[in-house]
From TrEMBL:
Xref: PANTHER family: CYTOCHROME C BIOGENESIS PROTEIN CCS1, CHLOROPLASTIC
Organism: Streptomyces griseus subsp. griseus (strain JCM 4626 / CBS 651.72 / NBRC 13350 / KCC S-0626 / ISP 5235)
Name under which the protein is recorded: Cytochrome c biogenesis membrane protein
Organism placement in taxonomy: Bacteria, Bacillati, Actinomycetota, Actinomycetes, Kitasatosporales
Cellular component annotations (GO), alphabetically ordered: membrane
Membrane-spanning parts: 65-83, 119-138, 211-230
Length: 595
């Protein structure tokens, strides 16, 4: 009975020693803030306001809450991608509201048409920002403290560590420790000698990568926020030969962040010299663009020298921090309008909007000033226009283009006269014709006057009201002029986040101890053990490489012939703790066990 009690006591001591060994060796392997656990008991006092504030701060700055907030931010961005946003396209938002009268009030209350500036999205954004800072600051301090400190001394029982090996050598203990210092330093370990052992540590880049990842997240959040607050973005459609100056009045549409100052528009201008587009002429990809580029002449500043460049899709022109993107292309029929006396009232290239991939286009031609009817009364003209760059021919189906290039251009017009409604003060779509206050020109058959024309042909208006001539076709290109100051920081933060995450995942923090002491028989006993922050199959391999390098200086001593006893029943290869082969913790003899 006493022997059994002694065995149980010894086992409890072993378990306590094992826990203390791992605790002393591994307690500082992580720089994560330690959570304070409240004492559990029947009489737990109620927390004060300050206590609740501290508890809330600990929860907010925990990694668990940071991940939850990041997940919520990702979920919050989903409606911003699926629902039209006012900051992107107000016309799409209005069309959505007209089509979904039931959902619109709900979406407006939830601010789903302005997701990225909504109260709830901003709250998640700010809380995530604070949470990350609260995570990083204490971890950084702890990490710097660990960099300045030395690896802890060797545990009492190295056999309890996950990776362990031992051998006997004829070298002196001091020589073994000196050789261990040299070998470990060569492998880029931080080392120092503590008592009868050498302590070494490696893998600090793991925690550094973790900190870099979180700092990069903050940089990305700041970059995205500054990009939204200080950005400017506008569109401009330009016909060949026309130009653009970067002033607010020159934009077709313009949007900016809430903190953007329009006086900070970069001074530059450019002219669209020519648009070049070529297309696949045969095969399954017929009509696919092969060349799609805008050749421009630009100048930077008020008196800058003129330079030529080519803007391609996804290859913008960069001028003074502003990027000019090529986003669309189409055709602008050149028409000349004359009054009843033959005087030229208007001659211009009128851009039409494409409605399919073959650039079938529609739009409106408006004559607002300078026209008088046969009685000398000022009035306005309007023409609904439908253009195809490649016409299939008469009797070959509907009038839709067969190819995007200008192989067989045809322009179809229908004519109106009266008031265009442009004097009402209400904004109008330049590509649509409001005929509510206009009358139709009648043809000989009494129906609406229509005609399909090729370049050079003319449509005569009835009763000597004048004519409109289809002179030819020019091409137009649509550009997006944007200034987003946070893009560079966002890109740098993304790259740093990936690098930091890779370091935190693939680099292992580990410690190695080498103990060299003289045994009872005068032969030096060398013990090596390793401990990693997490389980890894590479740790025993690395320890084996280190021991192989150290054996060259401290070679294995030959075994003395052992006297045959009853203990030989374990076999000729069995060894004790001072044996010459690697020993795992489970294989190490328990202290006090019978030999």
């Amino acid at each position: 009975m006493s022997k059994a009690n002694s065995t149980e006591t010894r086992q409890r001591e072993d378990e306590r020693d094992r826990g203390s060994a791992h605790g002393a060796a591994g307690d500082q392997l992580s720089t994560a803030p330690r959570e304070e656990r409240p004492d559990t008991g029947a009489g737990v006092p109620a927390m004060s306001v300050i206590g609740w504030a501290r508890w809330f701060w600990r929860q907010l700055t925990s990694m668990r809450v940071a991940l939850i907030l990041l997940f919520l931010l990702s979920l919050g961005a989903i409606p911003g991608s699926l629902i039209p946003q006012t900051s992107v396209d107000d016309m799409k938002v209005q069309a959505f509201k007209e089509q979904h009268t039931t959902l619109t009030p709900i979406y407006e209350k939830l601010q789903l048409f302005d997701v990225y500036s909504s109260v709830w999205f901003s709250a998640i954004y700010i809380l995530l920002f604070v949470s990350l800072i609260g995570c990083i600051v204490p971890r950084t301090g702890q990490f710097v403290g660990q960099l300045r400190s030395r690896p802890p001394g060797a545990p009492k029982r190295l056999t309890r560590l996950p990776a362990y090996t031992t051998w006997r050598t004829g070298a002196e203990p001091d020589e073994v420790r000196a050789a261990a210092l040299a070998v470990l330093r060569k492998r880029r370990f931080r080392v120092h000698e503590v008592g009868d052992a050498v302590a070494a540590e490696k893998g600090y880049l793991r925690e550094a990568g973790n900190l870099v990842f979180h700092i990069a997240l903050i940089v990305m959040l700041v970059a995205f926020a500054s990009g939204q607050l200080f950005k400017s973005e506008g569109g401009k459609l330009i016909v060949e030969g026309d130009g653009f100056s970067n002033t607010l009045t020159q934009y077709d549409d313009f949007k900016s962040g809430s903190l953007y100052d329009s006086d900070s528009l970069a001074p530059f201008s450019f002219v669209l010299d020519e648009f070049v587009g070529t297309y696949e002429e045969s095969g399954p990809q017929r009509g696919t663009p092969r060349t799609f580029e805008a050749r421009v002449t630009y100048s930077e500043g008020a008196d800058g020298a003129e330079r030529k460049d080519v803007i391609k899709v996804n290859e913008p022109l960069l001028v003074d921090g502003t990027k000019i993107y090529l986003i669309a292309h189409g055709y602008a029929p050149v028409v000349t309008v004359r009054d009843g006396r033959g005087n030229v009232v208007s001659r211009s290239a009128v851009p039409l909007l494409p409605i399919d991939n073959n650039i079938t286009s529609s739009g409106a031609i408006k004559v607002m000033d300078g026209y008088k009817d046969k009685n000398g009364k000022k009035t306005q003209l309007g023409f609904k226009a439908f253009f195809v760059p490649t016409f299939a021919g008469e009797g070959k189906g509907q009038m839709f283009s067969q190819f995007p290039a200008l192989d067989f251009p045809v322009l179809a017009l229908s004519a109106y006269h009266g008031s265009l409604g442009v004097d009402s003060g209400l904004a109008q779509n330049v590509y649509q014709l409001d005929t509510s206050k206009m009358k139709e020109f009648k043809g000989e058959d009494g129906e609406l006057l229509k005609k399909m024309m090729m370049p050079g042909e003319k449509l005569d208006l009835p009763d000597g009201a004048g004519s409109i001539t289809f002179e030819g076709v020019e091409e137009w290109a649509s550009f997006q002029i944007s200034q987003q100051p946070g893009n560079g920081w966002a890109l740098g933060g993304s790259v740093a986040a990936i690098a930091g995450l890779a370091g935190s995942l693939f680099i292992q923090r580990r410690r190695v101890w080498v103990r060299a002491v003289r045994g009872a028989d005068g032969v030096t006993v060398v013990e090596m053990a390793g401990l990693g922050r997490s389980e890894s199959a590479r740790l025993p391999e690395e320890l084996g490489d280190l021991s192989a390098a150290l054996v060259t200086t401290a070679p294995v001593a030959p075994e003395k012939p052992a006297v045959s006893t009853s203990a030989d029943v374990d076999g000729p290869d069995a060894t004790n703790e001072a044996g010459s082969r690697p020993v795992q913790p489970a294989e190490a003899p328990a202290e006090g066990a019978e030999k």
